[in-house]
Write a structure and sequence with these properties.
It is an enzyme of class 2 (transferase). It holds the Pfam family Aminotran_1_2. By secondary structure, the chain is of the alpha/beta class. The chain has 2 domains: 10-48 and 292-398, Aspartate Aminotransferase, domain 1 (Alpha-Beta Complex), CATH 3.90.1150; 51-290, Aspartate Aminotransferase, domain 2. Helix content is 40%, strand content 13%. The protein has helices at 10-13, 19-32, 51-62, 76-90, 105-116, 132-139, 159-165, 188-201, 258-271, 277-288, 292-312, 349-360, 384-398; strands spanning 38-39, 99-102, 122-127, 143-148, 170-176, 204-208, 234-239, 252-255, 328-332, 362-363, 365-366, 375-379. Strands 2-8-7-6-5-3-4 form a 7-stranded mixed β-sheet, with helices on both faces. A 3-stranded antiparallel β-sheet has the order 9-12-11. Strands 1-10 form a two-stranded parallel ribbon. A hairpin with an 8-residue loop joins β11 (365-366) and β12. It is globular and about 60 Å long.
């Protein structure tokens, strides 16, 4: 008699599909079937990858040396360029040996948690959070401790809140600024205070800096890794996807103390080996080449940010703080709940998002994907025309203030 077993491992069965990718896939499927759907789901710039980066990739594809394996941790030239960029932009001094090139930023999140978290460890995650963090923590055997900060706090947690969340099992803090999903940016003073607190507690800090180049209104980006006391207990995550419109190229990285990077690199030797060489060469061109395209894209995002906040705040039941970074608006939609909308009365933002998709043909991500119900995330990385039309559809459905 065969032994009883699950067809799918309980470890993998316990994690949820990425909510943002699910919304994006549903919107694209409806569009492919002929529906006129506008998607605010995925954080994906609508711009093409800058031409000089594409040209570097074409040249790399023609060079036979890029047709072979390279070191699993990444091309030496790229690792060196990332180390130099990290010193310049994050104030964290690292050697090339302290860099691991990963298959996108998401892979860097998983690798860092796999390298640091033991079964039973707790990771403090400020909420609203990016939907992948809790699932990656779960895969590593840890548990997520959410610390929520609402719009009245600018979606930013305080040291006092973090202190209340610490237990004897706390291993790390996940820190994200600029934030996905809220667009919040911690001030230099707030960042340094949290960094010093984490160092005093003996906690690791995993800082996701993939939106570092996207801040507005003169608001500076401050890396928590620049806090001197954290030098030996911080891991920096980033990548080229958002800054250079390279989501499909799949190049991210993690930078940190040598022992942690070595451990994550060893994992990568078994998991994926090296990132595709053509993509690595493209990333090298992105980091070391002209930066004017980044400025141009940021200007477009800034324009769209102003437009989306203005339009969202005209909708009945919506209150939208002005985001200072990334390319997301995080709507407080609690005022739109528990009232009839075209024959339906949504009681959660998950239900509200379904109504908006069904009735207005607009895809948004409900707050349940990022923490508590009551909120909606809309990416303004899509084109200007779609952005305006999409928000107007929601306003027609929900009404104006």
């Amino acid at each position: 008699m065969p032994l009883p077993h699950h067809r799918v491992s309980s470890r993998i069965a316990s994690i949820a599909e990425s909510a943002t990718m699910k919304v994006d896939a549903k919107a694209k499927a409806l569009k492919a079937s002929g529906e006129d759907v506008i998607g605010f789901g995925a954080g994906e710039p609508d711009f093409p990858t800058p031409e000089h980066i594409v040209e570097a990739a074409v040249a790399a594809a023609k060079d036979p040396k890029n047709h072979k394996y390279t070191p699993a941790a990444g091309l030496p030239e790229l690792r060196q360029a990332i180390a130099e960029k990290t010193a310049r932009d994050s104030g964290y001094q690292a050697e090339a040996s302290q860099v691991l090139v990963t298959n996108g930023g998401k892979h860097a999140v998983y690798a860092s948690l796999a390298a640091l978290v033991d079964p039973g460890d707790q990771v403090i995650v400020p909420s609203p959070y990016w939907t992948t963090y809790p699932e990656a923590i779960k895969l590593a055997g840890g548990s997520t401790v959410e610390v929520f900060a609402g719009p009245e706090q600018g979606y930013k947690v305080t040291v006092e809140q973090l202190q209340d969340a610490v237990t004897e099992r706390t291993k790390a803090l996940m820190f994200v600024s600029p934030s996905n999903p809220t667009g919040a940016v911690y001030t230099p003073e707030e960042t340094q205070a949290i960094g010093r607190w984490a160092a005093e507690q003996g906690l690791w800090v995993i800082t996701d800096e993939i939106y570092e180049k996207l801040t507005y209104d003169g608001v500076p980006f401050t890396s928590i890794a620049s806090v001197p006391e954290l030098a030996d207990q911080v891991v920096i995550l980033s990548g080229v996807a958002k800054t250079y419109a390279m989501t499909g190229w799949r190049v991210g990285w993690m930078v940190g103390p040598s022992d942690v990077i070595k451990a994550a690199s060893t994992l990568q030797t078994h998991l994926t080996s090296n990132v595709a060489n053509v993509s690595q060469r493209a990333a090298l061109a992105a980091i070391t080449g002209p930066q004017e395209p980044v400025d141009q894209m940021r200007e477009a995002f800034d324009r769209r940010r102003t437009t989306i906040v203005e339009k969202l705040n005209r909708i009945a039941g919506f209150e939208t703080p002005v985001p200072q970074g990334a390319f997301y608006a995080y709507v407080d939609g609690r005022g739109a709940l528990n009232r009839e909308i075209d024959g339906t009365t949504p009681t959660s933002t998950a239900e509200l998002a379904e109504v908006i998709l069904e009735k207005a043909k607009v895809a948004v991500v409900p707050g349940e994907a990022f923490g508590p119900s009551g909120y909606l995330r809309l990416s303004y990385a899509l084109g200007d025309e779609d952005l305006a039309e999409g928000i107007e559809r929601i306003e027609r459905l929900l009404g104006s203030k």
